[in-house]
Structure formats: structure tokens, C-alpha cells
Amino acid sequence: MMKNKLFILTLFLMVISCKTQVIGTLEQFEECSMRPNHDEGCPDLENITYVKDTNNRLDKLVGIWKGNYNGKQYEIKLEKKVNYKDEPTDALSWDMIIGRIQVKDNSGTIIYSSMNKPDNDTYFWGYNFQKRSYVMHFVGNYDCLESGDVFIETRIVNPNEMTLYYSQDKDGFLNPAKCPNFSTDVPLLPTQKMILIKQ
Question: Alpha-carbon distance 18 to 20, whole Å?
Fold first, then answer.
């Protein structure tokens, strides 16, 4: 009798402690972002705890991509993370892309690299799709307002080619003491479309 009560109590505690995961899709959240009133939220998606890449749209982005632009050599490594939370306490987890970037100048000297940083410290992570483009956020030298959205898209005619475009944030706090050359500073990522080739 005591064993039965203990078993029932243990089972009850396990049921209470396990939260049921409510799965949504990247497509649902993409559609939400295109609604005219998306700033007010999407009440129909509020109970979702996991945003899943059900159609494997992220898979085509995964890999190492290389390209050249304005004398700089770019290497970008994109990894798909499944059911990813930036912090263990986050209520919502995503299937998303985490990126790492290495940039060399025309003499081959590395001027920026996040290749060896842990996932939560690369400062290059995905949001979701906007039609065919996958939108990521990048933060480089934040003191020089080096942050913004990166739009990546594989080409229909050749999925081993990707276009990349960087839209630098216009707002932010500029600290002239930490960024004295801001007026002549060139963004790390190109603000015109560049082509990357899958390796």
C-alpha cells in the first residue's frame, strides 16, 4: 500500500514538472512578422514553446561559405541548431542558424574572427525567413555602431552560391573615445550584395 502511494506521488510529481512542448513552425512566425499589426504580437502563437524548422529550410544554408569583396576575404561558417535556447531559462526555443565569421584584408591578415567562440558568443545568429532570405543579426565592434541585419539567400539556379547583404543599424550609442575614426570607418560586412561559394 505504501509502495503504491509512493509510486502515484512520484508519477504525479513527474507529470507536474514536465511541461508539454507546444510546437510551431518557422513559417508561422514568418507569416506573423508580415501581418500589418505584428508589432502588437500574434496571439495565436503565444502558447508555442518551440519554433521548428519542419520543412528543413535551414539545411541549405549550413556549411562553410567563402567570398571576396572590396579586397577582403570572407569565410562564413553556418550551423543549424535544433531546439536552441540562448539561455536555459528562455521560454521559447528555436531551430536556427548560428554563424561564425572570419575576415582577412588584402594581405591575408585576419582583421576579425569569431570562429573559435562558443555558440552564445558569436554575435551572429538567425531570426527567421523573409520570403527567400534568411535574416540574421550581426554585432562586430558595437562601439562603432557595427551591428545590423544580415540577409542571406541561396540562389535558385545554383544552391552552392549565396548572396549576402548587410543592413547596418542607424541607431545606437556611439562612444567617440572608443571609436575615434568613425567618420572614415568602413563596415566589416558589405552593404552591397556579395556572392559566397559553398566549400
Answer: 6
For the four alpha carbons of 153, 112, 62 and 137, in that order, the dihedral sign comes to: negative
Residue 182: inside a domain, yes or no? yes
Helix (H) or strand (E) holding 181: none
* Per-residue pLDDT tens digits for 90-122: 889 999 999 999 999 999 999 999 999 999 899
Given the DSSP bridges, would you call strands 161-168 and 147-154 parallel, antiparallel or unpaired?
antiparallel
Asked if 194 and 74 count as a contact pair (C-beta separation under 8 A), the reply is yes
- Whole-angstrom Cα distance, residue 22 to residue 42? 15
Is 24 among the domain residues?
Answer: no
Domain count, the chain: 1
The predicted-structure confidence for 3-23, as pLDDT tens digits, reads as follows: 444 444 444 444 434 457 899
Give the domain extent around 127. 58-198
The CATH number for 68's domain is: 2.40.128
Predicted confidence band at 144 (pLDDT cuts at 50, 70, 90)? confident
Predicted TM-score (pTM) of the model is 0.83
User: How many whole angstroms separate alpha carbon 169 and alpha carbon 165?
Assistant: 13
Q: Is 9 inside any structural domain?
A: no
Residue 53 falls within a domain, yes or no?
no
